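Hi, here's the filled form for the chain we discussed.

Project: internal
Contact: R.S.
Residues: 67
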Amino acid sequence: MQRAQGATLFGVIEFRMCRLAAQSHGFDPADFHGFVTLVTMADAGIARLQQEGYAYMRRVLLRKSMP
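And the returned structure, exactly as it came back:
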């Protein structure tokens, strides 16, 4: 996580996650590191960013571990 966070500090990469998808998998905003930005509707954001030349990196399905 330190490498991922470090990359965000220098503007190398941004991490954005769909809030609706996170909620549907049982995650709350507080479950994510501070460098992850939750966006309302990822589909619209993905389309806009691809038009601007950004690449879409396919999601990895996470499961919230049970205590």
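Let me know if anything looks off before we file it.
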